[in-house]
Amino acid sequence: MTHFLLISMTQKLVIIGLELGALNKLKQLRLDDSSIDKSFLHMVGVLTSLNVLTMSHCGFSGSLPAQGWCELKKLQEIDISHNHFDGILPSCLANLTSLQVLDLSYNHFNGNIALSQLSSWTSLEYLSLSNNDFLNPISLSWFFNHSNLKVLLSENNKIAFEPNSHGGTPTFQLEFLVMSNCSFDGLKRTPRFLQYQYDLQVVDLSFNNLVGKIPTWLVENNTRLVCLVLMNNSFTGPFRVSNDIRPNIRYTDIAVNYIEGPIPANFSLIFPNLEYLNMSNNALQGSIPSSFGNLVSLWILDLSKNQLSGTIPMHFAVGCDSLAFLKLSYNNLSGQIFPTNSNMTALSYLYLDNNKFSGKIPKSISIVSYGSIDFSNNYLSGMIPTWMGNMSGLNLLSMAKNQLEGPIPFELCKLDLQLLHLSYNNLFGSIPSCSNLSRTEFLYLNKNSLSGLIPSSLILNTSDLIGLDLRDNHLTGNIPHSIGSLPSLRILLLRANHLQGRIPIQLCLLQTLNMLDLSYNKFSGPIPHCLSNITLKASFQEDDLRGLSSGLGSTNSFLPSLPYFETKYTTPPDEEFPRIHWGASLNVKPEAEFTTKRITYSYKGDILQYMFGIDLSCNRLVGEIPPELGSMSNIRALNLSHNSLSGPIPVTFSNLKQIESLDLSYNNLNGKIPLQLTEMTSLAVFSVAHNNLSGTTPDRKNQFGTFDESSYDGNIFLCGPPLQNNCTKMRPPSTMPVDNEGEEGDIFMDMGVFYISFVGAYITVLLGIVAVLFINPYWRRAWFNLIEVCIDTCYCFVVVHYHKLFNYRSA
């Protein structure tokens, strides 16, 4: 006898493979194949004994049919989640009076739930409406008679509760309530009906902008509470707890609120079994209670972005031996990082950045498995310990903006790092020629005193490199030709070193490059024409911009067990569990500093998708600007200033529609400024100052109407506004030649007229002299005497000096 059927093939196999008699006795039907047609729902009406119908992830779309499956009055469980259903719920659902479990999540249903037939389902125990388009207003008053309701999940919907004056008391006692990221229409305070709930195990009201005091009464009223998630609201005031022990609470998230005051000193006594605590992004003050060392089960602690001060308590560093994730970033903590007898042997993720920690890096730090360390922006001193190379599980290492000194230990080459960030320190010596950085994606060594060559082996062994920042060091030599072997490179910053030679054409192979900064070096030769091969497109992957992976595993492994699902709902969707929102805090996002519009900006995360720039300024480049650069239509910043470039400004630059900053100043450019440049309507900064340009300035239209005289300074043959040189005073307007395009030329006289006038004047003067000598005999004799004297004088001069020269050579 058939009581259960799991269909993962096609509708045809279902119809052919079973007889009608067997179908009448079918109790459970589970579909998980997108090849099954939605018309199958019209035929399930023959399954009169069916209790469970599951059709999740089948790719169904359109509205639910109003016939066929609505006749299944014995149905107790329906799961149609993760499809593309839309429209309102059919009225025939009222016939399903035995329904206990209904999952409508992850569809596009809309309409007013209060006007649907759900009110007739008094046997309902589990209801999931999450991630739909249900509209305002809906009220919980229609749930008040559902005495069996235990689970209500309604994430990402628009919820309008009844006013606080509503006097009704719900008959249900919920165990799980998830209403995160809802639009509480007209309501900003915690829903009043929660004051009548005493059996809650999980409460998630995150991302709702609720105001008022933090509802600690939820903890006091519900002794079985395991998870409390109130993050990303607007709760204020201190976090006060009662003196009653709550041993069941294991997961607490009150991050991103306005909670102030100190952390209660008895916190660990009230919540002795806490495993997860996130109080980040608040206004907490005071020190970290030493009693936190009693939280022996604590696995994850995030107190970042508060106003905590003092040192890390010794009892905390010794007692929390189960702690795997610790984030204290962006506080005012000081002193040494950990005492020498620290017992945090399970630690994998340590984020202490943006504090005031000082002293040397303690040897007590030990990272196990797949982990990260961020000590950046503190006052750490001394050398980078060589023993850090033994932390084989380390994945991200950031110690930027400290006072570290000495060479970069070669032992770091042993680590399989995705990111190494040592910028803004006092490191010196050469860059290690590491051969074990095949997984390295971001390498930041800028703002140090590193010297020597850029190791070719370093380039060859980092095939996954995305960002390389070596700015502001003392590096010498050429850019290794192996740079072209980095197909994923998007950021290359070599500014302010002593690099020389020609710009290698291998850079043209980096077609995914977003930022190229070679400024303030000694590069010579022409600009490679092939730089136009760089596509300057949004080439970052979503994972690159979100940040480097934490590797902590699935979120469900951190959540408490949910016994109701285990006993009542055989296949609970993982997405309905309360979220672990700290996932983003584990990531180190890619970043880059780039100078544009004469200001150095720091680009981080998603903004890198939209910033494309090339800076070759302050070098010794010669030759003409390649017209091919005009094909880089997505470029936003181009700086070629302070070189020895010559020739005209390419007319093709008018194709740079997205460019915001163009600096060609301090070169030897000549010719006129192409009037077509006024088509660059996004331009905010423009400079051609100190060149040899001539002619008129571009029309004062579009962005060019905003540029002042400083954009054209140092070009003595330029005229026109905003310059003080008036073009009408520099050349006659009536005889000004016109070029092929109808524009005024660059010269001030008609050369044909000049030649004719010169020849005519020469002939006139010559004929005048002949006429005078012919008429006046006295002047004629004087003229010929003068000619004879000149000839005799020249003859004597040549003879005398010839004999002197001959006698000198004979002697």
Secondary structure: elements and pairs:
Layout: E1 4-7, H1 11-17, H2 20-24, E2 28-31, H3 40-43, E3 52-54, E4 61-62, E5 77-79, E6 84-87, E7 101-103, E8 108-111, E9 126-128, E10 133-134, E11 151-153, E12 158-159, E13 176-178, E14 183-184, E15 202-204, E16 211-213, H4 217-221, E17 227-229, E18 234-238, E19 251-253, E20 258-262, H5 267-270, E21 276-278, E22 283-286, E23 300-302, E24 307-310, H6 314-319, E25 325-327, E26 332-335, E27 349-351, E28 356-359, E29 371-374, E30 379-383, E31 394-398, E32 403-406, E33 419-421, E34 426-429, E35 442-444, E36 449-452, H7 456-460, E37 467-469, E38 474-477, E39 491-493, E40 498-502, E41 515-517, E42 522-525, H8 542-546, H9 563-568, E43 591-596, E44 599-604, E45 613-615, E46 620-624, E47 637-639, E48 644-647, E49 661-663, E50 668-671, E51 685-687, E52 692-696, E53 717-719, H10 727-730, H11 751-775, H12 777-810
Parallel strand pairs: 1-2, 2-3, 3-5, 4-6, 5-7, 6-8, 7-9, 8-10, 9-11, 11-13, 12-14, 13-15, 15-17, 16-18, 17-19, 18-20, 19-21, 20-22, 21-23, 22-24, 23-25, 24-26, 25-27, 26-28, 27-29, 28-30, 29-31, 30-32, 31-33, 32-34, 33-35, 34-36, 35-37, 36-38, 37-39, 38-40, 39-41, 40-42, 41-45, 42-46, ...
Antiparallel strand pairs: 43-44
Helix pairs in contact: 11-12
Membrane topology: Single-pass type I membrane protein
Pfam family, one: LRR_1
Keywords: Cell membrane, Glycoprotein, Leucine-rich repeat, Membrane, Receptor, Repeat, Signal, Transmembrane, Transmembrane helix
